[in-house]
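Milestone M4 deliverable, item 7.
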Amino acid sequence: MKKIVSWNINGIRAVMGKGFLDFVKKSKPDVLCLQEIKAHKEVIPEEVLNLKGYHVHEFPAERKGYSGTLTLSKEEPTEIEKGLSKNIFSSEGRTLITHFKNYILLNCYFPNGSRDHSRVPYKMDYCAAISRKVKALRKKYNKPVIVCGDYNTAHHPIDLKNPKSNKNTTGFLEIEREWLDKFHKEGNTDIFRNLNPEKPDVYSWWSYRGDCRARNIGWRIDYFFINNEDLKKVKDCQYLPKVMGSDHCPVELTINL
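Output delivered:
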């Protein structure tokens, strides 16, 4: 049984002073996927790069202090892929793919469409590229393919506190939600929602404004998806809103791999 944790930490240096290492030591995940690390390797804290018992692979954005992903794993990957086919995605360090003996894990930081929707086309291009990559991996390898990270989209009205007032807000636009419908139809399932089809008020991101986290006015935009045929391997998937340090909370998957 393996424990895989995904967390948008909103800055690796910032989260270090907010109990990050204590969380890792207490949780002891087999794999920890981090998004929005906002740091090049030379400024990633040594305590992370040299974390005992873990192999560390980082994929920073070219732009300093922006985006980026990092994966820590107890098991040494058999292969690492950094980025997708187009450099417009790779330059932002959004996709880190780790191949293990028994499964493949995609650590993804999906783009935000921006308040003025100017980056929605870029976001949708990224979504399409993820779909193509997952299809290619599933075709080539006879292994579970798990896609985790910050998808920056709430799929259904149950996945955010105020769906009616946010129907024209990026993260809940029809075009963004339709891609998640399509991804599901392609054979990928949102693990938490599969286990908890009607469970409300479970979120992974809260605005810093208006005391939203304390009032639980949030969005569920961080997910674990897996190919349908391997759902039977899943034991549990849960959100950890009591873990502080970022405007997102960690998501924890327990799975037999």
